[in-house]
């Protein structure tokens, strides 16, 4: 553990003007507050914040960050309060400590009860000042280094999975690869102990049998570059066990089949020398096509810059080589922490693009589970590069589609997307993008995000924006249905209902405004009696005494609402326009529309029934048929031809039974209305290929 004077000396080495008294006060404060508390290792608890502060000095961070590291557990684990911290160390330190504390509180909650508001506050604090995240990453890294002292294997595994799912990806996204690699390896040892032991054992065998092969290859690379007149540093290493294991899992190969176990790093003096070194290596050894990546001209979003290539060395051995300058190397290993080191005099504002995306996700997410899902999507995926037609570069996760690309460019563009061109060709919106694709988004002014997009988008930003748009549309449509229901309810009140009565009803029901009232009626959060009483107190008294309740006088039209948003068509009876329909209204759910003769209605469903009508010119639904064909060649094709001739698109075709000489199929068709579906049934029954056809 660092002693008090050692910590101060470390800070003074890179920041001679640091406030020594402030650092000493913080050190003493954390020792006093944690007092006799012990860690699982048996060490005094205050050794942990002191070691985290030491990690922050390795990154050469400013004195406020060092003080925050010393105090980061005091509010969570002692009697200290944020007000105490602010009083003794100032508002900036208090704000940073509060940000770190909020994430610590989230960790202590079961995942299914994770508080969205706390996570939201942490992400906002992180976006305002990235040092919150840097301290938290240091905190997690030191906890992982001492994880083996925890006796419970279940707890070790839970912490390790959380590290692998959240903290290692966050470290990668801010470019702190050194932290990411160590956290992954320590977590891997707990999550997959057998795989870890096997791979580390095999690496040890290779190391003892290769006779210093890593050093000899590094020397050969250095000599080849020296002969070309270049002064470089070359180092070699084996890839760490988790990296090898992930490659084995992704490629479904054994340890022996992983060819690029060794990686080498070339540190050149300038950017130009990096490209010169690449040329020398490619002319000295054969390079592997498709394995070259230029992150110098197109850096990763976290600022990572390097040239990557893979070479075939002697005896067909494959080795990976990374080429970079010393400045690039520091940024690559410590990312934003290196960029915002104290010596550069920059105040870390944290406003990088992926953090802004996270804030958009925070604003759009509906609940804790959705927020956690979307933020994980945003931080934990391999990346590809895609370009706009004008050459602007965007990084996206593997599997991203044109819809993800559009939302990455701008949320409004994503919302207005109707089509896309990839490399000049019109392609479906669900097409997965490849590295280097040029994507042109085709937009429409009246377009809106579609619920179906959730089935293929790969980014948290796109998913959050789509869900938010669909929710708003759903609210509007439920409110529109509620307005129709409200008019029918108001007609039963023995008085003329005007704007004044509605305003008073909103007040009595403690709602925000008239729109809230209409939404509450549409979503069945308010019953008919409650609405009538709010409009005219006492209006239901006589009805209660007489034990009578007036029936709905006219059917409510669902024209203008979107199936799947304002209402759902029941899957049990598949009603189509032209059927007599009723609606089941359950609290907080869209109206479920059933045909009047649906068998499900006879089972006593606990829901409020409303009389519905399709409205004029309603069309478009899915009709469901059961068709029994004679089991002979060509009958299935004849049935398909009848569907096509009657302009009906087949949505689902499933063979449900075979009993020679018959085959039975369940078919779902896009139809306009009941008349359209009836014509199709008539055509099927008239066909010699069809033994029987009926509607389900």
Tell me about this structure.
The protein starts with a helix and ends with a strand. Residues 108-118 and 340-351 have low confidence and may be disordered. The chain folds into six domains: 4-191, Hypothetical protein af1432 (Orthogonal Bundle), CATH 1.10.3210; 208-339, Beta Polymerase, domain 2; 353-468, Roll (Ubiquitin-like (UB roll)), CATH 3.10.20; 470-535, no CATH class; 558-614, no CATH class; 621-695, ACT domain (Alpha-Beta Plaits), CATH 3.30.70. The protein is an alpha+beta fold and 696 residues long. Strands 1, 2, 3, 4, 5 and 6 form a six-stranded mixed beta sheet that branches. Strands 8-7-11-9-10 form a five-stranded mixed beta sheet. The protein has a five-stranded mixed beta sheet with strand order 12-16-14-15-13, with helices on one face. A hairpin with a 2-residue loop joins β9 and β10 (425-427). The chain is built from 27 helices and 20 strands. Residues 624-696 form the ACT domain. It is an enzyme of class 2 (transferase). InterPro entries: ACT-like_dom_sf, ACT_dom, Beta-grasp_dom_sf, HD/PDEase_dom, HD_domain, NT_sf, RelA/Spo_fam, RelA/SpoT_AH_RIS.
């Amino acid at each position: 553990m660092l002693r008090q004077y050692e910590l101060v000396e470390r800070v003074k080495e890179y920041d001679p003007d640091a406030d020594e008294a402030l650092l000493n006060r913080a050190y003493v404060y954390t020792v006093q507050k944690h007092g006799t508390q012990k860690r699982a290792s048996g060490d005094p608890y205050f050794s942990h914040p002191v070691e985290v502060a030491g990690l922050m000095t390795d990154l050469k961070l400013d004195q406020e960050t060092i003080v925050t590291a010393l105090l980061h557990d005091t509010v969570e684990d002692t009697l200290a309060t944020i007000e105490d911290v602010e009083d003794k160390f100032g508002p900036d330190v208090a704000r940073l400590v509060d940000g770190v504390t909020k994430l610590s509180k989230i960790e202590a909650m079961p995942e299914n009860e994770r508080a969205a508001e706390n996570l939201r506050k942490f992400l906002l604090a992180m976006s305002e000042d990235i040092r919150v995240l840097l301290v938290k990453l240091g905190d997690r890294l030191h906890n992982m280094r001492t994880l083996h002292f925890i006796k419970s294997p279940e707890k070790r595994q839970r912490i390790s999975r959380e590290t692998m799912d959240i903290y290692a990806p966050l470290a990668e996204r801010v470019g702190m690869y050194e932290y990411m690699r160590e956290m992954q390896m320590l977590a891997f040892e707990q999550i997959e102990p057998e795989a870890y032991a096997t791979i580390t054992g095999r690496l040890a065998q290779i190391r003892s049998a290769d006779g210093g092969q890593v050093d000899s290859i590094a020397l050969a690379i250095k000599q080849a570059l020296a002969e070309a007149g270049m002064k470089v540093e070359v180092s070699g290493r084996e890839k760490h066990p988790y990296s090898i294991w992930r490659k084995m899992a992704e490629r479904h190969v054994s340890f022996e089949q992983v060819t690029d176990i060794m990686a080498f790093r070339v540190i050149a003096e300038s950017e130009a020398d990096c490209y010169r070194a690449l040329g020398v290596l490619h002319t000295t050894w054969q390079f592997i096509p498709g394995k070259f990546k230029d992150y110098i001209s197109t850096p990763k979003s976290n600022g990572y810059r390097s040239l990557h290539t893979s070479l075939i060395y002697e005896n067909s051995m494959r080795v990976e080589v990374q080429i970079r300058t010393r400045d690039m190397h520091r940024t690559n290993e410590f990312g934003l922490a290196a960029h915002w080191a104290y010596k550069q005099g920059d105040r870390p504002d944290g406003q990088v693009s992926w953090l802004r995306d996270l804030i958009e996700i925070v604003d759009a997410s509906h609940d804790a589970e959705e927020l956690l899902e979307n933020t994980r999507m945003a931080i934990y995926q391999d990346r590809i590069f895609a370009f706009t037609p004008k050459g602007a570069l965007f990084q996206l996760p593997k599997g991203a589609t044109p819809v993800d690309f559009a939302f990455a460019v701008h949320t409004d563009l994503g919302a207005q997307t109707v089509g896309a061109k990839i490399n000049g060709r019109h392609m479906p919106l669900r097409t997965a993008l490849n590295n280097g694709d040029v994507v042109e988004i085709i937009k429409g002014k009246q377009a809106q995000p579609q619920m179906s997009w959730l089935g293929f988008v790969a980014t948290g930003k796109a998913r959050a924006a789509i869900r938010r748009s669909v929710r708003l549309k759903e609210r509007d449509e439920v409110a529109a249905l509620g307005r129709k229901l409200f008019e029918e309810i108001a007609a039963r009140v023995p008085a003329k209902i005007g704007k004044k009565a509605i305003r008073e009803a909103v007040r009595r029901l403690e709602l925000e405004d008239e729109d809230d009232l209409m939404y509450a009626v549409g979503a069945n959060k308010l019953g008919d009696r409650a609405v009538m009483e709010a409009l005219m107190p006492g209006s239901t008294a006589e009805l209660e005494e007489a034990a009578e309740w007036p029936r709905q006088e006219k059917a409510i039209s669902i024209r203008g609402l979107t199936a799947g948003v304002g209402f759902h068509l029941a899957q049990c009876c598949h009603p189509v326009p032209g059927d007599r329909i009723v609606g089941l209204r359950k609290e907080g759910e869209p109206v479920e529309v059933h045909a009047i003769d649906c068998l499900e209605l006879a089972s006593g469903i606990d829901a409020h029934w409303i009389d519905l009508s399709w409205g004029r010119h309603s069309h478009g639904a899915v009709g469901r048929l059961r068709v029994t064909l004679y089991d002979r060649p060509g009958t299935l094709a004849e049935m398909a031809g009848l569907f096509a001739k009657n302009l009906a698109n087949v949505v689902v075709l499933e063979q449900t039974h075979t009993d020679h000489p018959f085959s039975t199929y369940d078919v779902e068709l896009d139809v306009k209305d009941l008349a359209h579906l009836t014509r199709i049934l008539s055509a099927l029954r008239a066909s010699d290929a069809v033994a029987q056809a009926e509607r389900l």
